[in-house]
Amino acid sequence: MAPFLRIAAAVLLLASLGAFVVRDPPGWLRTRVDRARAAQDPWAAYLAPESACPGPSDAVSQDRTMVCLLDYARARKGVAPLRVVYPLNRSSILKALAIVRCADFSHTPCGKPFPATFDAVGYRGEIATSFGENIAWGAGAAGSPRVVVSGWLNSTDHRENLFSAEWAEQGVAVLPVSHFLGSKDVEVWVSQFGVRS
Q: In terms of pTM, does the model score above 0.70?
């Protein structure tokens, strides 16, 4: 075999091995990368380990994982966990649907006022004295509960919402969509908080 062909074959082999390692890194490499990321993330200690909040792929289990991650973070901060209530779950779903329907990633999708979904489920006025929400979206692994919570923990406004001792209840929704704002295989997340008088 000519020297050029040997070099080309070696480069092709190394590129193939490199692509395999990137796609399915060995456990030791994953552990080192996770440790390096945690060293750079001041909020990493507030993110539950996989063993405490496993992350399965179906939407119902993802909701449970998200609630587990949120409660874990609150507990680490010394704040009480929140009860999951149907009205806030329903309001979260309505907000996620509006975000996707109008392709408007905001707290006021489709031009509706912020409290619109809370009103729609009867969680405002005489029942609730205060409410708030965190929203997020991500494609592929960036839309996983763990990555989303890590993002919220590293954002001052989202973190303040998450750690507020004012809240007593929560609702969570994830809406998987095939396309959103130019990305494929997206998860849209809405996490809502409230307190009733």
A: yes
